[in-house]
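Reply to dn_fold:

You asked what the input looked like. This is it:
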Amino acid sequence: MEVKELITVNFENVIKAQKLVIVDFYADWCGPCKMLSPVIANMAKEFTNINFYKVNVDRESILARKMNIQSIPTVMFYKQGQLVNQFTGYKNPQEIKTIISNFLK
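and this is what came back:
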């Protein structure tokens, strides 16, 4: 699967409607975001039963404020509409796989 762009208008519906959703809050100018983006894209291809989304904090600043995003990248994990985990900054693929695996049990 691919990482889909998520906007303020459909954010709540997307995170509530699906079992596990991973949302990457990023900006185009952010170095660590650029490093994390291909890792998230590869995870989306590997874990096809999970929906991956990204939110550009510059274009969706209201949503970023609402979600209290203070540093980027911030990756949030939602399960059935509830925030169950999050991290800020770059994580390597194995660290992310470990987090994901905890929610697939």
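The two ends are 21 Å apart (CA to CA).
Hope that clears it up.
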